[in-house]
Specification:
Blueprint: E1 9-12, E2 22-26, E3 35-38, E4 44-47, H1 52-66, E5 71-76, H2 81-84, H3 87-93, E6 96-101, H4 109-120, E7 125-126, E8 141-146, E9 161-166, E10 169-173, H5 179-188, E11 196-198, H6 210-216, E12 220-223, H7 236-244, E13 248-251, H8 252-255, E14 258-262, E15 267-271, E16 275-276, H9 282-286, H10 293-301, H11 319-325, E17 329-330, H12 334-340
Parallel strand pairs: 4-5, 5-6, 6-7, 10-11, 11-12, 12-13, 16-17
Antiparallel strand pairs: 1-15, 2-3, 2-14, 3-4, 8-9, 9-10, 14-15
Helix pairs in contact: 1-3, 3-4
The structure holds zinc ion.
Zinc ion (ZN) binds near residues 80 and 83.
Length: about 350
């Protein structure tokens, strides 16, 4: 597939008007995972936060740009630094309703600081087991598929695995699960089928067995992976198996941020970071859903914007349009622009 960097591409898989309902943001945290789920009721669930550096540089600013005020549920799939590190700055920057974690003990400083941040704020902490449900308004079901009663060897294989259902669409988030964990999932008899799969363990060769992928049968596989990473992720065999299972693959090292939006029936995929309305070209603004040439010209005439909310000052743009644009646009600092003006 052609490499696209820094631009917004809309892939409409099934004919539909602009969708609304559930947004799943796969953040570009380099080598690591961070996934934000925002429901139609504006409830938020964050799965992992990348490394601590990525949490500070990418995750916290992204959430702020999006106007997120609270993380309702924060999930730490397992204690590796490329998953929990970035949750430390998130915990320092946003109120968090509750934390869900795998419960495996890890003796790193990062893990200690992660736990300390939770304890200091007295945030409810829960280690769920297979078969439990996590309530989040705006979703129909979030089922915990893993870990099971008995822990497996290795931190990755005990990742918290969630299957989220919204109407007719399911997403599977398996953390860094490897082949052994995939096997126990297959044996569990729990539902695995999902249109969208967060590919386990960054596309490692120790995960994505064909049997597992065939049971999930994803239309879309998202790989969160760093460019030129030292682990050789994603592995050729994993990519081959994804193809054999019928999945289209999208990688954060190729596209940057990946946003999947669904109304519970159709899926839209937005590739690349949100568009900066204060800097974007007329053509780029025109291509946004619900905009077109007339509104694009009005937006350009109304620049600079100090916040996304100010867009509703543009005639023809109401809260409904703004809602569709959430996650697709951002506005850069206005002050710097004013200072450089003659
Ligand atoms: Zn990882």
């Amino acid at each position: 597939m052609k490499r696209l960097v820094g631009c917004l591409l809309l892939v409409l898989l099934l004919a539909s008007a602009a969708l609304a309902g559930l947004d799943v943001h796969f953040l570009d945290v380099g080598q690591g995972d961070s996934i934000l789920i925002v429901t139609a009721q504006e409830k938020t669930l964050l799965i992992d936060g990348g490394t601590e550096d990525a949490g500070r540089r990418v995750v916290v600013p992204y959430l702020q740009d999006l106007g997120v005020e609270k993380i309702d549920v924060l999930v730490a799939t397992h204690p590796h630094v490329d998953h929990i590190g970035g949750l430390i700055p998130v915990l320092a920057s946003f109120p968090v309703g509750r934390v869900i974690a795998d419960g495996q003990i890890h003796t790193t400083r990062t893990y200690e600081r992660f736990l300390t941040a939770i304890l200091e704020q007295d945030i409810p902490f829960h280690t769920p087991k297979r078969g439990e449900y996590i309530a989040l308004p705006g979703t129909d079901e979030i089922l915990v598929l893993h870990p099971g009663e008995d822990l497996l060897p290795g931190l990755n294989n005990n990742s918290v695995v969630l299957r989220l259902v919204y109407k007719d669409v399911a997403f599977l988030f398996p953390g860094d699960l490897e082949a052994r964990g995939e096997k126990t999932l297959l044996a569990s008899g729990l539902p695995l089928a999902a249109q969208v799969l967060k590919v386990p363990h960054h596309g490692s060769k120790t995960s994505s067995t064909l049997e597992f992928l065939q049971a999930v049968s994803p239309r879309i596989g998202v790989i969160q992976v760093g460019a030129d990473n030292v682990y050789g992720h994603p592995d050729e065999k994993a990519l081959e198996n994804l193809k054999a299972a019928g999945a289209m693959v999208f990688r954060t090292d190729e596209y940057g941020r990946i946003l999947i939006r669904t109304d519970g029936a159709d899926l839209q995929i937005f590739l690349g970071p949100p568009l900066d309305l204060n800097e974007a070209s007329l053509e780029e603004i025109e291509a946004l859903p619900g905009i077109g040439p007339v509104l694009a010209r009005r937006i350009v005439a109304g620049r600079p914007f100090g916040s996304i909310e100010e867009l509703t000052n543009v005639p023809g743009i109401g809260p409904g349009t703004l809602r569709k644009l959430r996650g697709l646009i951002r506005v850069s600092e206005v002050e710097a622009k004013c200072a450089s003006a003659p």
